[in-house]
């Protein structure tokens, strides 16, 4: 018959696990490109795969390969509660390598072009963080005149990055929050 761990043993184990999680949270995220070229082939791991062997750091990557197989694919996913929000937003999008081969990259031009202006990105950030009206945005001189703000807001709305929450109020649609944050992460790291 197994003995039940004492309260002290359970507390000690819990403290150790919290310390491990805190250490992992503050450790810098690692990025590894493992695709090879003719001049520099990818190094194979112990398993014969170019997949990084560190399953703790690369848990999402290993999960992707486990789910899609050795041909792999690309995915992005997120779970976050926006500033000032009460409900988390969850999103996942991915395609297998075969699905990616079917994409016409030019189809992304309109959506990406709408984000290609620094003021639009600053407006999106302000709206994401809770500023919702053109009048409120107009108080920040970075955004220009109300006419310029409307021009940018309508361009972002036309590309699906903003929606009208109610008359005169704008928000980033829930289904666009994680894609937006993913693009910002890509652009800054």
UniProtKB/TrEMBL annotation:
SUPFAM superfamilies: Winged helix' DNA-binding domain (SSF46785). Residues 27-51 are annotated as: Disordered. This is ArsR family transcriptional regulator.
């Amino acid at each position: 018959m197994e003995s039940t761990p004492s309260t002290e043993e359970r507390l000690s184990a819990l403290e150790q696990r919290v310390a491990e999680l805190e250490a992992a949270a503050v450790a810098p995220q690692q990025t590894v490109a493992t695709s090879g070229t003719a001049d520099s082939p990818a190094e194979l791991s112990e398993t014969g795969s170019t997949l990084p062997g560190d399953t703790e750091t690369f848990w999402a990557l290993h999960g992707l390969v486990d789910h899609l197989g050795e041909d792999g694919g690309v995915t992005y996913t997120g779970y976050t509660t926006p500033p000032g929000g009460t409900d988390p937003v969850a999103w996942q999008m991915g395609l297998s390598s075969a699905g990616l081969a079917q994409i016409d990259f030019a189809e992304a031009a309109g959506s990406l072009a709408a984000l290609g202006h620094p003021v639009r990105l600053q407006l999106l950030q302000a709206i994401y963080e809770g500023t919702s009206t053109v009048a409120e945005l107009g108080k920040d001189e970075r955004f220009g005149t109300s006419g310029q703000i409307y021009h940018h807001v309508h361009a972002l709305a036309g590309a699906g990055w903003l929606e009208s929450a109610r008359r005169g109020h704008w928000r980033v649609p829930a289904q666009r929050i994680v894609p937006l944050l993913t693009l910002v992460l890509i652009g800054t790291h």
